[in-house]
Structures are given as structure tokens and as C-alpha cells.
Design a protein that fits this description.
Layout (H helix, E strand, L loop, with lengths): L1 H22 L25 H18 L4 E8 L3 H10 L6 E16 L5 H13 L6 E2 L5 E6 L2 H13 L6 E17 L3 H11 L6 E5 L8 H11 L1
Antiparallel strand pairs: 1-5, 1-6, 2-4, 2-5, 3-4
Length: 233
């Protein structure tokens, strides 16, 4: 009798286990284990064929328009992208055919008296200005006298008119501080292949421009300039 009960319980357990297995929701497979280098995966943007064809046609037309140019100018490279652009041009191995020029922007203007010939003269000029009610001044190490620094040219010009109205003499206005705005790369005698490379490089910089320009006159060597000055004297 006990064996029969044991057999009945065993069959019941097996049946219950089979029921649980058959009615359980199928587990979703974990495909993440099959992935390799998940953290290194990158999404690649796919350019629609119509846009790609249009860009290719624009590049072809640009290369044709610049073919035969004595010099081309690659301009509009911002300071944040300057190091990257320099590496790209260095890879072209252009040597002395490449000239880099920085475009500076005036960020501050000042009203000043030009440097005096000696400290005594600078002190006398400063005393004269204070006597005319212009007290916020300072003598710089080069003996120029600063009357004020301004963020805009218009503000500096208005202040200059104010101090001149007080009878100040010899006061001027000019740039005080400059910052590099962007860079210009000039390439001499580019062939068609090089122009095409420049046109493709231009796409990597949103503000860059590429155009044909007149070649600047080559600079004379330093020894030739010295000899010319010596002959003139």
C-alpha cells in the first residue's frame, strides 16, 4: 500500500512539473551575450543618394572653377578647429607653397597718450591731465599714459571727445587688445588633384571657404633686405 501511495505521489509531482513547464511564458532570449564590443559600436549616418549626388556635383563644379588658379585661399577655420586643420595641411606636404595667416579681431580699445621720451615728461603730462579733471589715468611701463580701456570703438571715441573738450592735448584712440578670430591657409600653384583634396577638406569645416586669389608677392630674404638698406645709406 505504501509503495502504491509513493508511486501516486511521484506521478503527481511529475505531472505538476510538466504542467508548470508547458504553461510558463517563453523567456526572451538574451542576445546581448552574443554581441561583441558593444561599447565600441558607433552609429553611422547614411547620406541619402540624392543629397550625396548633389554634394558630389557641387564639389566637381568647385574644382573646375578653381582649376588653373595661381593661388587658392582656404579661409574661415575657427580657433577651435585650427589644430585639426594644421594636421590636415601638414599631411599634404606642401612645404613653402603653404602660407598660414591669422585673422585678428580687436576686442578692446583704449584712449591714451603715446609713450613719452622719459619718465619726467610722462609725469608732467599726467599732472597736466589731472589738472584738467582727468584723474583716472595710469603710466604704463613704456611711459604711455592710459586714460581708459573700452569694449567698443564707439565708447572709446566718445570718451576721446570728452577729454579733448577738457583741453587735453596729444590724446589718441586705438586698439588695445586683439584675439585670433580664425585662420587662412594660402596654397600656391595647386594642381587639380590638390584642389579636389581641398574641396573635400572644406566639407569638414562648416564655416570654411575656398576661393581663387591673387598670389602675394614673395618676401625678400632678410640678407637681401639688409643689403638694400646698406646700399641706400
Amino acid at each position: 500500500m505504501s509503495r502504491f501511495l509513493f508511486f501516486i505521489l511521484l506521478v503527481a509531482n511529475v505531472a505538476f512539473g510538466a504542467h508548470l513547464w508547458l504553461t510558463a511564458a517563453p523567456a526572451e532570449p538574451d542576445f546581448s551575450r552574443r554581441e561583441r564590443n558593444r561599447d565600441e559600436a558607433k552609429l553611422v549616418a547614411v547620406i541619402p543618394p540624392v543629397i550625396a549626388a548633389r554634394k558630389a556635383e557641387e564639389t566637381r563644379a568647385q574644382v573646375q572653377s578653381l582649376a588653373g588658379a595661381a593661388c587658392v585661399e582656404f579661409a574661415g577655420v575657427g580657433t577651435a578647429e585650427l589644430a585639426q586643420a594644421r594636421q590636415a595641411f601638414a599631411a599634404m606636404q606642401l612645404g613653402d607653397r603653404l602660407v598660414e595667416r591669422r585673422v585678428e579681431e580687436i576686442t578692446r580699445y583704449w584712449v591714451f597718450v603715446p609713450p613719452a621720451r622719459d619718465r619726467r615728461t610722462a609725469d608732467q603730462t599726467a599732472a597736466n591731465l589731472r589738472g584738467r579733471g582727468i584723474s583716472d589715468i595710469s603710466i604704463r611701463p613704456d611711459l604711455a599714459i592710459s586714460l581708459g580701456v573700452f569694449s567698443t570703438e564707439d565708447a572709446a571715441r566718445r570718451f576721446l571727445s570728452l577729454v579733448e573738450a577738457k583741453g587735453a592735448k596729444g590724446v589718441q584712440m586705438g586698439p588695445f587688445a586683439k584675439e585670433v578670430k580664425d585662420a587662412v591657409f594660402l596654397v600656391r600653384e595647386p594642381d587639380t588633384e590638390l584642389v579636389a583634396r581641398l574641396a573635400l577638406l572644406q566639407r569638414e569645416y562648416s564655416t570654411a571657404t575656398l576661393r581663387a586669389v591673387a598670389c602675394p608677392a614673395p618676401e625678400a630674404p632678410a640678407n637681401a633686405q639688409a643689403a638694400k638698406k646698406a646700399g641706400a645709406s
